[in-house]
Amino acid sequence: MATIIRRGQEADLPALRDILNHYILNTVVTFEMVELSLENRKTWFTQFRDEGRYQLMVVEKDEQTVGYAASLRFHQRPAYGPSVMTSIYIHPDHLGEGLGEKVYSALLDNLSAEPEAHRAYGLVVLPNPGSVKLHEKLGFEQAGLLHEGGYKFGKYHDVRIYEHRLGK
Predict the structure, then answer these.
(1) What is the per-residue burial (b if ≥16 Cβ within 10 Å, else e) of 138-148?
(2) What local confidence, expressed as pLDDT, does residue 168 receive?
(3) Domains along the chain?
(4) For residue 75, how far is the Cα from the chain centroid?
(5) Which residue positions in the chain have pLDDT lower than 50?
(6) CA angle in degrees (0–180, nearest 5) for 67-68-71
């Protein structure tokens, strides 16, 4: 079973949309509330480059796109420019296979080589022991806790902020 980590392509968007929509509709790991369209994902895709702060890496298994890790704008204010927000989603049928670690590591390695990227932040809705373990294994450190930071499925959820000091 061949596993490939590579740059995201527009052809990956239907699979990435479907993966994220699963988490939107069935979990609190994302605070997105409404299913995303293919047009939405096409617009989202335009921010990514092969170099720079905003990158999209995908994991492919047996020629199927089964997950991704991305770095996105952290905040609108210009002084936050060297910081990025990261996100990672793996198809639920492939959790626990180590694919998340591989694709997230590739993203962090790429970002560490970028002179304009200084810090990466990950938000983990609690409880989520798998995501906590992954972030800590990859060198993220706890940076804070947002008590009842989001509201989804009729209740409030805490959100832990993780920080990764990108290698320079």
Answers:
(1) bebeeeeeeee
(2) 60
(3) 3-165 (3.40.630.30)
(4) 16
(5) none
(6) 165
